[in-house]
Amino acid sequence: MLSLLLWPAGLLLEFALLARSVQTKTFTKYIYFYAYISCVFVVSVGLFIGHSNLEFYEAWYWPTQFATLAIGFGVVLEVVRQALAAYPGAERFAWRASCAVFAVTFCYVEWHVASRTEWSTVAATVELERDLRVIEALVLATVLAIVFYYRIEIGKNVTGMIVGFGAYVGVSLTTLALRSFLGPRFNAAWGDLQTASYFFALIVWTVALWSYSPNPAPPTTGRGNGGYDALVRGTRTQLESVRSNLRGVAGS
Amino acid sequence: MISLLFYLLVGVGLLVFLWLLARRKGAPVEGCGRQFVEARQALRTLQLGLLPENLIERLFDREDFRYAMAASPANIGELFLQERKRISLMWVRRVRCEIRNLMQFHLGYSRLHAKLSLLTEIRLALDFGLLLLACRALRILLYMRGPHGAGAVVVVLTAAAGRVCAASEKSLAFLNPPALESFRRSSAGNGAAI
Q1: Which of B34, B108, B160 is nearest residue A245 as measured by Cβ atoms?
Q2: How many structural domains compose chain B?
Q3: In chain A, which residue's Cα lies nearest the Cα of B19?
């Protein structure tokens, strides 16, 4: 019931978001993000028009769901690209850490799927969605950890993207995990929670991306490649001297 | 069951991160420039405010305590000890705080370098974490043994912090503009302060 109410409202928000992006010319600035919204909008409109025809709906739901799920990675890419673009060091760190997270999670999921003895299409579909959400969640968490660790200031647009998409991914992941565990009796709550979380994400995106608000300009002092080794050497020297003395402290 | 816990942990963990992001107060926009100044200030505080030899001697001197115990009633001596303990704990807390500032300096500077190494940064993060933890342990030691029971510890920590300052001084050497330095050197010995 809740899903049926939020569906048309969500379509209106998606349309407003896209119209506003064209009006403020932010479409080209956050191209991956708006490509995702456009894709979801087209799919949602198509499914909304055809949802009275059950056969059509069932035939198209999962393929389109996978398409939007795959394009959803674009939002994660957009977040990494936008949040850390001005900080080459932190960006490099984020890409490498994200690749490592992706590889480890993918291997774990593959191993988990390969070790299954029973196989059903519906269960496999739900699990695949959940596993892809895990990768998205871990990559987002890695980027956020880097943003916190390096105290990187991000603008309203990118913060909105992260909060909206992160909330949707976090809720989806939690409910998908519970659905796998609780079975079909959780289906109704699962559908409503997923729709509500996506609707929440749309509200956050609409508010945060209503006008263009770029990330604050990064400092220019100290930029360059030459000083990093010297910096690391200096920091290491400090740490070594303190550590050697603390050993003495512990012994006294 | 284990995989359910894993998925729930990741999902809830991400939501907690988002909550922290939404609650986060604006990070310093001045970024590196401000952190350089803060690092410089942290160094000055350590060198001039927290580590001078006479201050440390005064703070942890046993003679003062002996005199207070001998020349006044026992409750005055206890009060004296409590106050000294409070001050010494405050001192350790401040030293730790300034070391944190130096750490922030490293982060503020390294995030801008395209050549940043993932492994080096992880190792340094661990090192800083352990060092700060060690400072906390020292605080506990002072708390338990009192200011006069940890005299040797204080001497060693002071020496260590002094060496950190010396090393940081080199890291921050680029903050001294060469032109200004040469001007300073070439000015008369008793000239106006720059």
Answers
A1: B160
A2: 1
A3: A163
Residue type, A2: L
CB pair distance less than 8 Å for A219 and B12: no
Residue A120 scores a pLDDT above 70: no
Condensed to tens digits (0 to 9), the pLDDT of residues B49-105 reads 666 667 767 777 778 778 877 888 888 888 888 888 888 788 778 778 877 877 777
ipTM of this complex prediction, to 2 decimal places: 0.72
In a domain, B161, yes or no: yes
Domain that holds residue B137: 31-174
- What is chain B's Cα-based Rg? 23
In a domain, B94, yes or no: yes
Q: Give the highest mean pLDDT range of B68-77, B115-124, B140-149.
A: B68-77
Q: Model's pTM, two decimal places?
A: 0.67
Count, residues in chain B:
194
Q: Which residues of B touch A231 (CB under 8 A)?
A: 106, 109-110, 113, 171
Inside any domain, residue B2? no
State the residue for tokens 């991000």: A154
Q: Do A149 and B112 touch (CB under 8 A)?
A: no
Task: For residue B111, tell me if it sits in a domain.
Answer: yes
CB count, 10 Å around CB of A229? 13
Q: What is the pLDDT of residue B182?
A: 47
Please spell the DSSP secondary structure of B36-70, one letter per residue: HHHHHHHHHIIIIII--HHHHHHHH-HHHHHHHHH
For residues A36 and A75, is the Cβ–Cβ distance under 8 A?
yes
- Of the given ranges (A10-14, A226-230, B27-31), which has the lowest mean pLDDT? B27-31
Residue to mutate among A168, A175, A245, with most B CBs inside 10 A, is A245
Cβ within 8 Å, pair B4-A96: no
> Nearest CA of chain B to the CA of A5: how many Å?
25
Q: Suggest the residue from B111, B155, B158 to mutate for an interface test with chain A (most A CBs closer than 10 A).
A: B111
